[in-house]
Amino acid sequence: MNNPLVSPGLGVIVWMLVAFGILAFILMKWGWPVVLKALNDREKAINDQLNAAEKVKQQMAELKADNEKLLNEAKMQRDEILRNARLTGEQLIEDARQKATVEADRIVENARENINYEKLKAMHDLKNQIASLSIEIAEKLIKQELSDKQKANDFIAGELERAKLN
C-alpha cells in the first residue's frame, strides 16, 4: 500500500505547506478584507434596517395615538354639534310657541275689539231705529191729538209752559 496520497513524502508535504501558505497569504492580503468588509457592510445594513424598523414601529405607535386623539376629538365635536343642534331646535320650538301665543292673544284681542265695535254699532243702530219709531209714533199721536185746532193750541201752550220751567 504504497499510495502517495495516503502516505505522502516529505517533498509533497513541504510543497503543500508552501502552496497553502501562499494561498493563505493571498487570501489574507486581498480576499479576507473584502469578505470582512462585506460582512461589516451587511451587519451595518441589517442594523440600519432594524433601526429603521424600530423608528417605523415608533412612528406607527405615535400615529395610532394621534389617530385615537383625533377620533376622540371628532367624537367630542360631534357630540357638541348634536347638543347645539338639539338646543337650537328646542329654542326654535320655544320661539315659535311664544310667537304663536302672542299671535293668538293678538287675534283674540282683535276679535274682542271687533265684537265690542259691532255691539256698539248694533246698539247705536237700535237706538236710531227706536228713535225713528218713537218719532213716527209721536207724529201719528200728535196728528190725532192735534186734528182739532183748539186741542192743538192747548197742547202748544202746555209745551211752551213746560219748556219755560225747565
How is this structure best described in words?
92% of the residues lie in helices and 0% in strands. It is mostly helical. The chain has one domain (10-165). The protein is rod-shaped and about 200 Å long.
Order of helices and strands: HH
Fraction of residues in β-strands? under 5%
Number of strands: 0
Instruction: Report low-confidence residues grouped into runs of 5 or more.
Output: none
Task: Please count the helical segments.
Answer: 2
The level of helicity is: over 70%
Number of domains in the coordinates? 1
Tell me about the biggest sheet? none
Q: State Rg.
A: 65 Å
Distance between the termini: 187 Å
Mean pLDDT: 87
Structural class: mainly alpha
Shape: rod-shaped
Keywords:
single chain; 166 residues; mainly alpha; 2 helices; 0% strand
Short characterization:
By secondary structure, the chain is an all-alpha fold.
Task: Show the helix and strand layout.
Blueprint: H1 10-145, H2 149-165
